[in-house]
UniProtKB/TrEMBL annotation:
This is tRNA pseudouridine synthase Pus10. The keyword Coiled coil applies. It catalyses: uridine(55) in tRNA = pseudouridine(55) in tRNA; uridine(54) in tRNA = pseudouridine(54) in tRNA. GO terms for cellular component: mitochondrion; nucleus.
Length: 532
């Protein structure tokens, strides 16, 4: 154990005497050699025993460089805890155990008083196999993994107490120990676990991997150990949404930074007591990062909403564009859920023709992530064969960042429409011909009455770039429009009780209404066109 030096000897002895495991001792001695932590637990105990048995004479020290003079005897006396009459804000005093065998024996039979067993039982092969069994049973596709750990917040309190103890001993030697010098528990745990998981799973550990294996630890026996901090530092513990307890790890760390040492020592034993039980691994979970699928859809039905149409909890129509596409993607990717987005939306009675409307679907926690281009074509065909109400094209896997292109410049995009218009008074072809000559017509559109329940009241300036009329009969004509994205076409036709100015009715000095509307193109060059 060449990473330890003579100045570490009293710290090793002190922590062993108080019930700290060998891996936590390495952490407090600022040992950063990852391979040392991977040594079998029993071997580490033996190595610490040999280290303590070494006398301090130069000729007997093979692995250690003498950095400081021999340490002083630790003059500490044992007391029982914070309820002891003598516990008045001072560090508890620990008797020196000069016999290394006794120190190691005492530590070997106890659950570590700092890590609560995280760096003991949970670093063994049995636990690694338990994690891997969970991963394999979940049936995910992955080529690497990232391992995450959630630790009980009271571990931070115990580590703080142990740090105060070690800091005092270091001070006795004329040395200092910053909290930042201690190797983080999570970091040490991952040093040990990563190689074992990687070997069992057959893929490398990668901090940027989208496949996450997570373990949530708890220790019910010591759950209440954080509570005194809420009295000492109440401003650090604020109720938060989606948090079952105010005693989060970050809140506890914040309080530990704020609380004075003497106040901490009045409420918590230093060193921390040895627990009776190990931590529990409450949850072992797997999660794949989201996969994104994009394409364009055509909608041929005038009785199909883009997204589920539900009013006051009651479903109005059986299906939607979103559901007709996503149900097949969900089944093939074996995802938990999805999020649908698109470049604008059409009303339930509006068709989307031409090249279709760009859309993207985020598939949350998919089990399957690898699809060839041929498989994506097959999936597209499956969707198209399932319904005559919609068709999709250019179906492909995309990145999260690429989806931003669908939303970029949304107000500046143009869209073309075809509207079938009814006029109350008879018209001739020449009555509507002037519409073809109008360019860049500016509109002021108040939020339409039909969407006022879900959109804020505002006046929006929109532009009709061009119009082309197509006479049908005395009361009907078709109008082809190229407009700024976000223009309310129905309201431009009938005026929405004067909320859109000008409008077709006011331009023709007649009452106008819209009978049919089709989206003919959405001018967004995304996603890339494929050979379908």
């Amino acid at each position: 154990m060449c990473s330890l030096t003579e100045k570490d000897r009293p710290i090793v002895q002190l922590l062993l005497n108080t019930g700290t495991c060998p891996r936590c001792i390495l952490r407090f001695c600022h040992v950063g050699t990852q391979t040392l932590y991977r040594h079998p637990y029993k071997d580490l105990m033996k190595e610490l025993e040999e280290f303590l048995r070494n006398n301090q004479e130069k000729e007997d020290r093979v692995c250690f460089d003498v950095v400081d003079p021999p340490c002083k005897r630790i003059r500490l006396e044992h007391t029982e805890g914070p309820d002891d009459p003598n516990h008045n804000g001072r560090l508890q005093q620990i008797p020196l155990v000069n016999d290394a065998n006794t120190a190691v024996e005492n530590s070997a039979v106890k659950v570590c008083n700092v890590c609560l067993g995280i760096l003991q039982e949970f670093c063994e092969t049995d636990f690694v196999k338990r994690v891997c069994q969970k991963v394999h049973s979940a049936n995910y596709q992955f080529t690497s993994f990232v391992f995450s750990v959630s630790l009980p917040p009271q571990l931070s309190v115990r580590e703080h107490a142990a740090w105060l103890l070690v800091k005092q001993e270091m001070g006795n030697l004329g040395l200092s120990l910053s909290k930042d010098d201690i190797v983080q528990l999570k970091e040490a745990f991952k040093w040990i676990i990563h190689p074992q998981l990687s070997e069992e799973l057959g893929v490398p550990a990668d901090g940027k991997s989208l496949f996450e294996v997570s373990v949530v630890f708890a220790h019910p026996e010591t759950d209440g150990e954080c509570h005194f901090l809420a009295t000492a530092c109440p401003d650090c513990f604020k109720p938060a949404k989606n948090k079952q307890s105010v005693f989060t790890r970050m809140a506890v760390l914040k309080a530990l930074e704020k609380i004075k040492e003497e106040d901490f020592l009045k409420h918590f034993p230093c060193p921390p007591n040895s627990p009776k039980n190990l931590c529990d691994a409450l949850e072992i979970q797997c999660n794949n990062g989201a996969i994104f699928v994009a394409g364009r859809y055509n909608k041929y039905s005038r009785n199909l909403p883009q997204t589920p149409w539900i009013i006051d909890g009651e479903r109005k129509l059986d299906s939607s564009v979103e559901e007709l596409i996503s149900e097949h993607l969900m089944a093939e990717f074996k995802a938990d859920s999805f999020n649908f987005s698109s470049s604008g939306r059409e009303d339930v009675d509006v068709r989307t023709l031409g090249n279709g409307r760009p859309f993207a679907i985020e598939l949350v926690n998919p089990r399957r992530i690898h699809f060839t281009s041929e498989e994506m074509k097959g999936l597209q065909q499956t969707i198209n064969n399932s319904s005559d109400k919609i068709q999709v094209r250019d179906l492909q896997l995309v990145t999260r960042s690429a989806i931003g292109r669908m939303k970029e410049g949304e107000e500046e995009k143009t869209k073309t429409y075809s509207a079938l218009i009814w006029i109350d008074k008879a018209i001739q072809k020449e009555d509507i011909a002037f519409l073809d000559d109008i360019k860049e017509l500016k509109l002021d559109q108040k939020t339409p009455l039909r969407v006022l329940h879900r959109r804020p009241l505002a006046v929006r300036c929109r532009i009709i770039h061009t119009m082309k009329s197509e006479y049908i009969d005395e009361h009907h004509f078709r109008l082809h429009l190229k407009t700024q994205a976000g223009t309310y076409i129905k309201e431009f036709v009938h005026g929405d009780f004067g909320r859109t100015k000008p409008n077709i009715g006011s331009l023709l000095n007649r009452t106008a209404d819209i009978l049919e509307l089709d989206v003919e193109s959405v001018d967004v060059d995304w996603p890339p066109t494929l050979d379908n």
